[in-house]
Amino acid sequence: MSRLVDQIRQAVAAFVGCKTTPALIGGLALAAHRVVRATRDVDFLVDADDADRLHGILLDLGYRCVHRSEDAANYLRGDEGLDLLYAHRPIARRLLGEASERATALGNLRVISAEGLIGFKLQALVNNPSRTRDLDDIRALLRAQRGKLNMAEVREYFALFDRTELLDELLAQIADETS
Predict the structure, then answer these.
(1) Quick one: 51 exposed, middle or buried, by C-beta within 10 A (0-12, 13-18, 19+)?
(2) Could you tell me the strand order of the sheet in which 80-87 lies?
(3) Cβ proximity of 44 and 58 under 8 Å
(4) In the predicted model, what is the mean pLDDT of the chain?
(5) What CA–CA distance (Å, rounded) separates 179 from 168?
(6) How far apart are CA 53 and CA 32, in angstroms?
(7) Could you tell me which residues come within 8 angstroms of residue 53 by beta carbon, excluding any fewer than 6 positions away?
(8) Do 96 and 47 meet the contact criterion of CB atoms below 8 Å apart?
(9) If DSSP codes are grouped into helix, strand and coil, which group holds residue 75?
(10) Host H or E run for residue 71
(11) Residue 1: band (very low, low, confident or very high) from pLDDT cuts 50, 70, 90
(12) In Å, what is the CA distance from 22 to each residue of 52, 112, 149, 169?
């Protein structure tokens, strides 16, 4: 885990001076919300206004850009992956701004809310339905954060992607498990 910790510390140091301090999303952010699963890369939500600056910094740190679009970028350095999701839409900017600093096994990091993480996982699933891991992550977050989530916000994300029936199915499955 020390290589991952070093990678994250280096990335966080590179983020100094960003418009808004980036927030951890993806598989590593799950742990801050009591869901643990293996992952091979580090994912951050960053302000879209910082995209060009961060691109240059990551290249200077020895990363190779394997994909870059208006919405996201993927970088590799050896076997270390680092992905950036650019916050440029109002909801993503709000989630980035509201991310809270948390003590994690990887140090103190800003982490997106569980509700926001569910929203991003849902967007990834809608964009690529074969990403069943995202559906598993959503289910695990709903289970682990049961009774703590702002369900009105979660429901808004599912409505945004026209997936309210999926949310109802997931909630029914979780309720069945506990009864």
Answers:
(1) buried
(2) 64-68, 72-77, 80-87, 41-47, 23-25, 107-111, 100-104
(3) no
(4) 93
(5) 16
(6) 28
(7) 17, 18
(8) yes
(9) strand
(10) none
(11) low
(12) 14, 9, 22, 33
pLDDT in tens, 24-56: 998 889 988 989 887 778 999 999 999 999 999
Torsions phi, psi of 165, nearest 5? Answer: -65, -35
Tell which wins on pLDDT, 38 or 18. 18
Residue pair 51/73 in contact (Cβ under 8 Å)? The answer is: yes
Alpha carbon 87 to chain centroid, angstroms: 11
Decide if 65 contacts 55 (C-beta within 8 A). Answer: yes
Helix (H) or strand (E) holding 70: none
SS3 174: helix
